[in-house]
Structure formats: structure tokens, C-alpha cells
Amino acid sequence: MRKTHLAPAAVGGALTLAVLLSGCVANNPASSALTVDITDDGCNVSAATAASGAVKFTASNKGTQVNEFYILADDKLRIVGEKENITPGATVDYVAQLSPGTYYTECKLGMVGAGIGTSKFTVTGDEVALSGTDKEQSDTAVTNYVAYIKEQTDGLVTNVAAFTAAYVAGNDDEARALFPTARTNYERIEPTAEAFGDLDPKIDFREPMATEDGIPFTGFHRIEKDLWAPAGFTPSTPAERQELADGLNANVKQLFDLVREKDFTVSLSDISNGAIGLLEEVATSKITGEEDEFSHTDLWDFQANVEGASVAYGNVRDIAVSKGDDGKKLVEKIDKQFDALNKQLAAYGSLDAGFVTYDQLSTQQVKELSDGINALSEPLSQLTHTVLGIAE
Amino acid sequence: MTTPDDRMPEQPDQPHDSAQPDPAVSGGTPAASAASAASGASAAVGHSGDPATDARPKRTLSRRGLFGLAGAAAGGLVVGGAGATAVAQATASGTSGAADSYAFFGANQAGIVTPAQDRLHFAAFDLSSTASREDVVELLQDWTLAASRLTQGLDVSEDGAVGGPSLAPPDDTGEALGLPAAGLTITIGFGPTLFTSRDGIDRFGIADKRPAALVDLPHFSGDTLDDAQSGGDLCIQACADDPQIAVHAIRNLSRIAFGRASLRWSQLGFGRTSSTSTAQATPRNLFGFKDGTANIKLEQPEIVDDQVWAQKTDGAGWMAGGSYLVSRKIRMLIENWDRVALGEQERVVGRDKGEGAPLSGGTEFTEIALDKTGDDGRSIDTAAHVRLAHPSQNKGQQLLRRGYNFVDGNDELGRLNAGLFFIAYQRDPRTQFIPIQRQLSQNDLMNEYIKHVSSGIFAVPPGARNADDYIGSTLFG
């Protein structure tokens, strides 16, 4: 959460993702050709490896419902390629430019919910130089990032529903366990959510900010206060809990809907600045431990912010590399510092296994994390200029 | 005075204050002229070569490369004669008598025998746990380049505060725009933990190069040191006649260090407590007494060579032309002191408060006569500060003191958190600071009114010879 909202990201032009995707690859003959058998409960790619370069996937939906095909980066978060709206009986071609590395393929039945048939997919061979015009490169980055935002709001709705159900039922232990991870999807895309001016205050404001703005204190942190009630605080009644839960569910659903509106998109600078902004978010409110003042689960948010920054950066990284030596040096530096920061965080836990609570960290440990953030933020702050400001 | 917007694009290297030097006011006051002249001769001991060439950064350093800062390194001009002139005295805020700018490159680092400027920002850094030897060298190269520019009144890079692309954060933080160099010197030192970490690890392969003189300071009687405010792998002393300039230097150098080193502690000093040149009036410390009357002065080259500069024959050859810095933050219990009778204050110090003359008689610069009784019947107490610190009581050993007054707000009891941030340069702390301080800490009458709360010792290597060199090259090169 932050007080200063980014300018809304939406721009008017109705972008048709499929058109952009095909435009991006039109002149690149595929070096590998694979098939994808899609069923309602399967997503079977004909090979688990391919040579780097243009990889053509011919996807056939043999199931009964509309489906989507995804290629994810090795963090299983960043979307590298996506073909949506594959109707039953249809066979479609999709060509992705893949550099050497580890990827994951999966399908998404009904275009929501968890991925189906998630499988490791390995690409070997030479690095692939980014091809296409600036516009095409930018469109690819935007397309993949928008798909990722949708994916995260999907997870958000699901996870918040489970969390609030436990809270409403009075299963406080379960609710406390679910609280930090229910926030993860939100924290990964915070700058996007903040772009919708009135939504972030309802979802993620801390009490002092709500008070300052004269709005009711609702959302994650109001529920957090119930679950980790400070001395002298009168906890909510069951009816009040229901109301708070309904409000949070409605607001995250609204976010889910907004990012699926036809004219929703982001700009390349939104992505790049989003990466920078997520790190600043960590530097200002997470490092101080003020974000989760009752639960002290700040490290979950910290990790999610860093992941979100990493995904946003990953979407424009190739563009930065294509800007010549300065770009290459910059990504080398940023890659190194992301690695270092991730290692630092891993010493305290993970999103899957849980983290230590923030009040257990010594001042020296917090300083080391702060140093890590500074080390990454300095080069990362140059990203937007490199991506947008340097002519090839 | 022109504003940044008036800068011609082909003149990226204009000083912060890009007013043209006016010969009529160059050199400013007589004091400044004298200091400038002195610095030309002596402060610049060995500062060789054409400053106009020396001040021109040639190398492409990592930060430049990273930011893609302008290929042609030094398209622009270089500020006036280093160590002298250029900006009108009228714009200099200080009274230290320091020159407007000092040459950065030379055999010794500036900021040691340089006439003490009025303001200090001192910073100690710890290297990142992931920093490699290459990172350390690169950091020292980047600091050298930045310091060579800042000390000439330039922004930290060619793009500077407002000359860069609008989509990127500016290289320079900008608060020095429109200000002159203000006599800025930047002096870099290496702490014992650079050579061997606190865990005993030789992180950078230089443990065997640690000079024997760079000892861990022993505990002195009465020490109440705060570890978090003491030590450090690296230090930077930034002195200037304008506090904004000194802070600007530390701020930008800290920023350059992100990812490689971070601040461990830092200290602002608002008034010099020593003269390091005969051209300077003796300032007063927060006890209200003149301080540094008998200090080593740059006009005493034999004493400087004998007591301040490390020599090749001293052991660590790479330190030749360097010096050893000891810092001590000395809290003064000024509320107690202020309730002490004048005569008693003078007995503690051993000098008269108004003139600064020794109690053995004469005027400020009269040689102290330890066993003589003055005309008024007073003499120097056996435990007076000036007696115990006197070279005759310390085997002839002296220190070049370069300390500053500080006030860091107040404590929870409503007392000013004030005192002296003591800095001393010397050839070998084992024979200079340590025995002198041992003697003082045990017997000095002044101990009742002071408390040492932080401590540091740093090997300050020789200067960078030119723009192709860097501070620390004799150690890492």
C-alpha cells in the first residue's frame, strides 16, 4: 500500500492480444514444431525439450470447454507466452521465441483457476537475439505482463476467499496461517492495483492511513488486527467479520474484473517503473516492519514484492539487453543483485514453508536486508531509461 | 552566477558555481591568499603535474559504464588552477582561510596537512558480505573518480544533477548546484577489518599487507565505547567550508557504494578545533578554550615528514606517503564544565582562557615552560592537559590534530550531546597516539569532564597520482 498512487495505467486503444502475438512472430519461421493436446484435465506437449529460437506449438483443444495454453518462466510466475481462448475442437498455432532455459507449460480450463498439466520444458542452444521492431518487442512484453496480472488476480480471488472463510467461521488459527499468503498475489502486482485509485485504500490501507484519509479502516489489515488483536482492542463481532470479509472479497473481485476489461493494458514504462516501485515499496514500508504491524508477517510481503519486481523486470529484460553494451551491463548488475537478495531472503524461509516473523530479526539482519535492497534498487532505478530512453 | 539551465551543453564540466573567475577577487582575503600560497607550496606536498590535466578524469569506471554516462570522458574544461582561486571569496562561507579548491591528485591525499576547513562530515563504511576483491577495487576507483570531480566543484559525473536523461534518476543528488567547491577535501582510509574481518577472515587477500602500525587500539582508562559507532572497513573524511558541500560529498559517495559497502556510522562536525596552518587563527572547542595552538602545521615540513607521513622504511611500503588516522568521539559533559570556576578551568587545561597563553606565562604562541611559574604566580599543574600532551612528556612524539566540534541534539536528561570529534594523523599510532592517550586517560584533569564514546583507526594510503591512478592502488595494484 502506498499513499501516492501511480497514474492509472489503462490506455484507450483496444489491444487484441492474439493479433499482437501473431504480429510479433510473423517473419520468424519456426525452428521446432510441437503439438499440444489439450483436454479438460490434461495439457500434453509432444516433447519436453526444444532448440532455442522460434518454437511452434500447434494446440488442439479436444476437451469440452474453452481453454488456454501458457508458457511460464522458471519462476512459474512470469508468463513468457500465452494463447488464450482456444475453443473446443479448435486447432491453433502459436509461435514463441524461446532462449535457452527452463520453462513450464500448462493449460487453464475455462481460463481461470489453477494451471492443469504443468510440465517442465527445457530449451537448449544459443541465446536468441530479440527480433522485431521496438513496437513489437514492447507489445510482447505488455501482452505477457497483462496475462501475468490477470493470473495473479485470479489467484488473489481464490486465496482471499479461503482466508476470509476461515476468518468468518472463527477458525482463527487457520485464518492466521492463511493471512500472509492470501496477500502474496496482491503484493506481487501492487503498483497495478494502486493504479485503481479507490481500490487499494479499501484493500490494503493500514489504520493510520485510513484515519488520515478519513475513510473506514477495512481490508487485509483490519482483519489482521482482529486476528492478532492488540491489548485493549475490541475484536469484531461475527456480523462485523462477515461484513469485512464480504468487502475484501468484493474488492479483490472488482480488481479481477477491472484487469479483464477490454481496454485494460499497461505501458512498457508501467512495467519497468512497476519493478522499481515494488522495490521502493519494500525499502519504505516493508523494511521498517510497519506494513504488518500486528502479525509481523512482513517477510512474506517482502518476498512477494521482490518476486513481482523480478517478473516485471523479466518482461523487459530482453529489451534492455537489446540496447547495446549499457543495457547488457545493466542487466548483469540487476541479475546479480536479484540473486543476492533472493539468497538473503531464503535464509529466513520461503512462501511455501513460511518465514520467520519480522520481530525476530535483529537490527543487524534488517540492515543487511536494507543493504540488499539498496544494492538492487540503484541499478534497477536505471531500467526505465535503458528500456525506453536509449535508442538502438 | 548562472543557473544550471544556463549551462551550455558542450560545457558539461562547469563547476557548481560557474561564475567566471574574476582576477580582481581571486584569492579573496589576505588569509585566504596566504593559505592558498601555502597550499601551493606545502599542502600540495608532492602534488605534482599540471592540475588542469590531473583533474581531468580519463578512465571509464564501472559506474560510468553502468550509467552509460557520456563516452567522451572529459569533453569539457577543468576548473581553474587546482589548489587556488577560481571562485570568488565572496561566495565562500568559511573563515578557515582554506582555499576555494584543492588539488585532488598528488603524492599525499589532501585533507591532512590542508589548512583545516570549518566543517566535517566523517563516514565509516563496512563492505558488503558479498563484496569481492574486484568490488573493493572498483569501489575505490569509482570513489576516486567521484572525489576528483567533487573536490573541483563539479557534479559527481558529467551528466550530474540535471544533465542526464529525464527517465533516469540523476547521477548527482543536486544539493550542491550553484555552490563552489568550498575547499572540499575527500580523504579515504582503510580500517583493520579491511585486512582481516572481525571473524578473522582474509576476505580480499591483503591480510599480509596490513601495516604493523595499523593496530587495534587498546582499551584506555575510562573508555565507554559504542561498538556500533566505532571502527569500520573504510572511512571517508570530507571537509569543506560549507556543511552542505561536505554532506553532499558523503551522500553521493555512499550512494556510489550501494551494493558494495554501506554506512556503519557517520559524524557531522560544525567547527574546526585545530589549526593546521600558521595562516589560520586558532579556533575554540566547546570548553571555550583555544584548541590546536601547538598543533603540527603544514609550514613545518620537517615535522610533517617526521611525525605525519609514513615512510617507505616504516614497514608497509605501500603506505609511503600515507598516514594513520585515529578518530575518537569525545563527549564533553559541558553542563558540569560550565559550573567550574574560571581559575579551575584554566588549571585543568593549563592555559589561560582568553588569550590561550600557557599558565607559565607569555602569549598564545609562547613556548610552554612546564617548570616555570608565571608572573601571576600560576604554573602548569602536574596533571594539566597541556602538560600531559606536551611532546617533552611523550618522547618528542606529536599528533597532527584535525578535530571538529559536534552537537548531536541532546540526551534524554536534557543535556546537550556535545563534544569533540577528535581526529589525529600520525606516522605510527604505536609510538604516537597510543602512549599519549594512555598517559592522558590515566592522569588528565580533564577526564572528569569528558567521555570517549567512539573510536576508529584507519590507514590512509598515499594520494592518487593522476586520473589513471586510484586511492589504494599501492595496496591492491
Automatic annotation (TrEMBL), chain A:
Taxonomic superkingdom: Bacteria
CDD domains: Imelysin-like_EfeO
The Imelysin-like domain, residue ranges: 141-383
Residue stretches making up the EfeO-type cupredoxin-like domain: 18-111
Any Pfam family matching the protein: Peptidase_M75
Signal peptide: 1-32
Family: Belongs to the EfeM/EfeO family.
Protein name (record): Iron uptake system component EfeO
Automatic annotation (TrEMBL), chain B:
Catalytic activity: heme b + 2 H(+) = protoporphyrin IX + Fe(2+)
Iron in keyword set: yes
Ranges annotated as biased composition (Basic and acidic residues): 1-16
Domain of life: Bacteria
Region (Disordered): 1-58
Phosphoprotein listed as a keyword: no
Cofactor: record remark: Binds 1 heme b (iron(II)-protoporphyrin IX) group non-covalently per subunit.
Pfam family, one: Dyp_perox_C
Enzyme class, broadest EC rank: oxidoreductase
Protein name as it appears in the record: Deferrochelatase
Organism annotation: Okibacterium fritillariae
Lineage of origin: Bacteria, Bacillati, Actinomycetota, Actinomycetes, Micrococcales
